[in-house]
Design goal:
By secondary structure, the chain is mainly α. The protein contains 20 helices and no strands. The chain is globular, with a radius of gyration of 23 Å.
Length: 501
């Protein structure tokens, strides 16, 4: 069988080939290119929609990392160790990843506007209510409910952008959207530490984002537009069965390899984001002549470092991708691969230098985060152009499930467990409380795991580059064939009949 095209009705691994299909592909690409480079063609309503999605993404990640900014206070109040502190983030991410496939299925078939509005309302309400619990079990349970609400939004939002734009305009909008992730994460540390310190109660840090969430629900309901699926690409493809969707994704090497690579990114990001302030605080207390050091001040600085690293790294990655695609069609995964391989030694040196020189440690962490953030918008773009439009919410959900299941769902907890175990072996006596030096070294050795994971992720991205051009061409041909079939009544009826099977 000639593997040069794909049938859009069942699986994008089923292949067809004819001259008309190639002509349709060329016409489709020419039509899409008219909107590819010029932001002036973007309407005010489209800008508003992207702006709303970015605002929600910002407060979404603010909410996730507010606790990390006050983690020391949380540990004291609930009298928990590093392992249970890491479990707080794990229970959130587990709920987030488990419910993502459900929202992915719904997002490919039903109103994305109301699914997102309900999800944002849920995580805003549960964040606010959960902040009042004094029992650790109930507090952790409500963090899980927050994850359910956030799964609805994160799964669907990128697909709305994909249905509004194509080509480099889509890449620029995705860069704007993912720019909110590191900035929001940094603001989470800052809001948590500043609001908690101002109120003399860390719980007030959790009560800021719910009010912003209420504003977001109103914007989704009355301002945001929900485009037709595949609108930007003139796609007329119909949704297929969930089983066919999953089978197609599993057989898509570009999607699977980039998902495994992004799992490594999620692992490293989750571990560093959760334990970074605590680790730096411990390291600084070991330096001579360091006085008046507080976890709140360290969280504030760490938040600024993360925010500026993301503000530079995410758009830089998108700009590099847009510039290099004209020269090398496989440049997207290559940029991501080399970025992770460069980040690994930077993160290692940052971890080593914390106890010796504060400025050097922050600088190296800043550079390590920049290279890590180069991947965010590029990976999102890869998913959208190697998967056909009716499967993109499912693809986003599937990637969320895999990347969080083996990434940041376990990395904060794993690092905490390793740290607690090392404290026993590094400490003088098992029954004695570990010294600050022992706590620091235990957490440092545990965080070294992230460097090895970054190297593995870089290798997965480089493997993705082998398949990326072929898989993108398959999607273009599938969309072109669907457009050609929709123009012929007999083919259109056949397509609808096949999609319903």
């Amino acid at each position: 069988m000639d593997q040069s095209g794909i049938t859009p009705n069942t699986s994008n691994q089923q292949l067809v080939s004819n001259g008309d299909n190639d002509s349709a592909t060329a016409l489709l690409q020419e039509k899409q290119a008219r909107r590819r480079e010029n932001l002036r063609d973007v309407s005010f309503v489209e800008y508003m929609t992207v702006g709303i999605l970015c605002f929600i993404n910002l407060i979404n990640y603010m909410d996730r990392f507010t606790i990390a900014g006050v983690l020391g206070d949380v540990k004291k109040e609930f009298a928990i160790g590093d392992d249970q502190a890491g479990f707080l983030q794990t229970v959130f991410v587990v709920a987030y990843m488990v419910f993502a496939p459900i929202f992915g299925y719904l997002g490919d078939r039903y109103s994305r506007r109301w699914i997102m509005a309900g999800g944002v309302a849920l995580w805003s309400l549960t964040t606010f209510v959960g902040s009042f619990f004094t029992n650790f079990g109930m507090f952790a349970f409500f963090r899980g409910l927050v994850g359910i609400g956030e799964a609805s939004y994160s799964t669907i939002a990128p697909t709305i952008i994909s249905d509004l734009f194509v080509g480099n305009v889509r890449s620029k909008m995705l860069a704007f959207f993912y720019f909110a992730i590191p900035v929001g994460s940094g603001l989470g540390y800052i809001v948590g530490s500043v609001a908690g310190a101002a109120a003399h109660n860390w719980r007030w840090g959790l009560r800021v984002t719910p009010f912003l969430g209420a504003v977001a629900v109103a914007l989704i309901a009355w301002v945001m537009t929900d485009p037709e699926r595949g609108q930007a690409e003139d796609s007329h493809m119909k949704a297929t069965s969930y089983k066919a969707d999953i089978r197609s994704l599993v057989r898509n090497p570009s999607f699977m390899l980039s998902t495994l690579a992004f799992t490594c990114v999620a692992f490293v990001t989750g571990a560093l984001a959760w334990w970074g302030p605590q680790f730096i605080y411990l390291g600084l207390t070991l330096q001579p002549n360091m006085q008046d050091i507080t976890l709140e001040s360290v969280s504030y600085k760490f938040g600024l470092v993360g925010m500026f690293a993301g503000a530079l790294g995410v758009p830089l990655g998108s700009a590099l991708a847009q510039r290099l695609r004209a020269r090398a069609q496989d440049s997207d995964p290559l940029i991501c691969g080399f970025a992770l391989l460069a980040s690994a030694p930077l993160v290692y040196l940052a971890l080593v230098s914390v106890s010796a020189h504060e400025a050097t440690a922050y600088l190296l962490m800043f550079l390590g985060m920049i290279t890590l953030n180069l991947t965010w918008s590029i990976v999102a773009d890869i998913i959208l152009y190697v998967v056909v439009p009716p499967r993109r919410s499912t693809a986003e959900a599937f990637q969320i499930l895999i990347s969080h299941m083996f990434g940041d769902a376990g990395s904060p907890y794993l690092v905490g467990v390793i740290s607690e175990s090392l404290k026993k072996s590094l400490g003088p006596m098992p029954q004695e409380s570990p010294s600050t030096s022992v706590q620091f070294r235990a957490l440092q050795y545990a965080l070294f795991v992230t460097c090895f994971v970054e190297v593995i992720g870089g290798v997965f991205f480089l493997l993705t580059s082998i398949y990326i051009v072929r898989d993108k061409l398959k999607v273009d041909r599938a969309i072109a064939e669907a457009e050609a079939q929709s123009a012929e009544p007999s083919h259109s009826n056949a397509q609808e009949h096949a999609a319903g099977e």
